[in-house]
Specification:
eight-stranded mixed β-sheet; 17 strands; alpha+beta; nine-stranded mixed β-sheet; globular; Antithrombin, Chain I, domain 2; Alpha-1-antitrypsin, domain 1
């Protein structure tokens, strides 16, 4: 069988900017809606969670460009896409806005250095690539579309002759794009002689706080690990103007990164063991509304944390969300005729979606990386007046996001149950 694989990796650099003629609202809204859907699928236990909905949605948006018939209809429903052709242009515009953010902070850093101030900009890298079986009959219209709108370079490999070497090559590309933070995205044996296409997205981000925490203020304070007994962990502390709002059952706080176009969002439940209740009412609208919170003086206690999670295989999650025919369920139903001509005994389907992330939050800022890979195979038959400082102690499991402020799109979303 011929398979298609989707890869998503997140790190700290952006490249391959594409031009678009529409705004980024479609891409941003769809990304946040998928973020909530996937978070509910993956956050059922008590372990730490980190995904990059932007990386996953980008990789699947490229795949969606080649879908047709019922496969396209199902993917549109699960990915929250309209049925029109504005999806590629919207993702192109969003990627360009993220690139503009990086350029803006580089200019700010340059200006700051002139006056003796700190001078570290946001480092952002977004890269897309198609790793394809050499000699296979891919449609030129599809290759042109993903190159123009997603900056996805086409690279021919030989899965038939040496799938293991192809796996190593793709994993090295992901590691290079994410500054070494995402390694071995594709597990050994996942690709074979029936693999025909791997669509990959890699994202790397290194973002300094607009106003860093003082390392001298970091002290060990209690954190209710998994909503249970408190355990002392390194807790950063700072009193400053942060975005803040109190809602029923939770508090939202946002911390700006340099340039103010990117922020770290915290959703803290009122109850020590209230994480799952908060997650049950998390919506894309809640995330969107938190993109621009009113500034208040806040005395914030925030734990340092670093998450390096193993590769996740997301096929089952997406099938549970209703994206079945893309995975050739039932057999013979996958329709990616816009990628390569669909024949009765030679057609593409998604065999697996691999995703892996890394995130570290400390006094200086945040470093995060993610990668997503979609594997396709061949078959034989996804501001007001300032009040007194408000004390917010992030001393219990909480939801977090790294959010692009202009669009509201979440580059990362997850929860921390144990910051150790």
């Amino acid at each position: 069988m011929k398979r298609l694989l989707l890869l998503s990796a997140v790190g700290t650099l952006i490249s391959g900017m594409a031009q678009g003629t529409t705004n980024f609202d479609l891409a941003a809204t769809a990304t946040n809606q998928l973020a909530v859907d996937l978070h509910r699928q993956l956050a059922k236990g008590d372990e730490n969670v980190c995904v990059s909905p932007y990386s996953i949605e980008s990789a699947l948006a490229m795949t969606f460009a080649g879908a047709d018939g019922e496969t396209r209809t199902e993917m549109a429903r699960v990915l929250h896409f309209p049925t029109d052709d504005n999806v590629p242009a919207s993702f192109s515009t969003l990627q360009r806005s993220l690139e503009d953010m990086r350029v803006k902070t580089a200019e700010l850093a340059k200006e700051s250095k002139r006056f003796g101030g700190p001078g570290e900009p946001i480092t952002l890298n977004i890269a897309n690539r198609l790793f394809a079986q050499k000699g296979y009959d891919f449609r030129q219209a599809f290759l042109s579309l993903v190159r123009q709108n997603y900056g996805a370079v086409f690279e021919a490999l030989d899965f038939v002759a040496n799938a293991a070497a192809a796996t190593q090559h793709i994993n090295k590309w992901v590691a290079d794009q994410t500054h070494g933070r995402i390694r071995d995205l594709i597990p050994a044996g996942a690709l074979n002689k029936m693999t025909r296409l791997v669509l990959a997205n890699a994202l790397y981000l290194k973002a300094p706080w607009a106003d860093p925490f003082s390392e001298k203020s970091t002290q060990r304070e209690p954190f209710h690990v998994r909503g249970g007994a408190p355990v002392d962990v390194p807790m950063m502390r700072k009193t400053a103007e942060f975005g803040y709002v109190k809602r029923e059952g939770f508090t939202a706080v946002s911390l700006p990164y340099v340039g103010d176009d990117l922020q770290f969002l915290i959703l803290l439940p009122d109850d020590v063991n209230g994480l799952h209740a908060l997650e049950s009412k998390l919506t894309a609208n809640v995330l969107s509304e938190c993109a621009k919170l009113e500034a208040h003086d806040v005395d914030l206690h925030l734990p340092k944390f670093k998450l390096e999670l193993p590769t996740m295989a997301l096929a089952e999650s997406f099938q549970s969300l209703g994206m079945k025919s893309a995975f050739d369920v039932p057999r013979g139903s996958a329709n990616f005729d816009k990628i390569a001509p669909r024949k009765p005994n030679d057609y593409l389907y998604i065999s697996q979606i691999f995703h892996k992330t890394f995130i570290a939050v400390d006094e200086k800022g945040t470093e995060a990386a993610a990668a997503t890979a979609v594997v396709m195979m061949k078959a034989t038959a996804m501001a007001g007046p300032k009040p007194e400082p408000i004390e917010v102690k992030v001393d219990r499991p909480f939801i977090y996001a790294i959010q692009h402020v202009p669009s509201g799109a979440c580059l990362f979303l997850g929860h921390v149950t144990d910051p150790r």
